[in-house]
What we know:
8 helices, 253 residues, globular, Rossmann fold, alpha/beta
Amino acid sequence: MDLKLKGKNAAVVGATRGIGRAIAGMLASEGCNVSICARTEISVYAVVKELSAEGVQAMGTSLDVSDSDSQTHWINDTVEKFGGLDIFIANASAMNLGVDDEAWRQSFEIDMMATFTGAEAATPYLKNSDAGAMVFISSIAALHTPGGPKPYGAMKAAVINYAKGMARSLAPDGVRVNTVSPGNIYFEDGVWGRTEKANPEFFRRQVAANPMGRMGRPEEVASAAVFLASPASSFVSGTNLVVDGALTLGVQY
């Protein structure tokens, strides 16, 4: 399938490892110019170099996405370099699984508000695109609450709600907004990679709990996100696509 991404311009938050890195790489392999941001400057530099090797334009900025001015400047710089913006991918998360006040504050500022800030900064440019699209990375934690209320799941649920509202309000402008909710995704320096080393018995139980008998890969989430970001999904907006190997029990309505 031709995703019709060649020559499009994309901005991807949190794109130096895991799901975000896989999304950036897949966009570049489809011929999309890609701008990334993440916290660590040396990692940003390395990924930009790798993306450029795909024969597309690539740029990157080291920043803290909870700083709204920094993220807005990055979006503006991306548009100045590429000459426009067609795709915005929000992949920011504090990944804070605590339950104290600080966990709630961090999760709100990064998982929810950083998504809001990036989307608001990108929207005027996406309205000028003939294929404007946003994809927010949520989580299956938004769909169920094992172990009681936690800020991570609550904020990821807020992201899905926000995306649905944005999808309806921006539809007349030709801008689509969707979310992707990954299940347990394994990569070596991610949560589950670290869990495998620190608590192998718990890790084995989590693998066994999935009907597919394994955890997902970043590339499998990226395939869903890139499809939703592409003109190939031109009539898909306001949806939440679960990528979890049938792990969750609930049914979305």
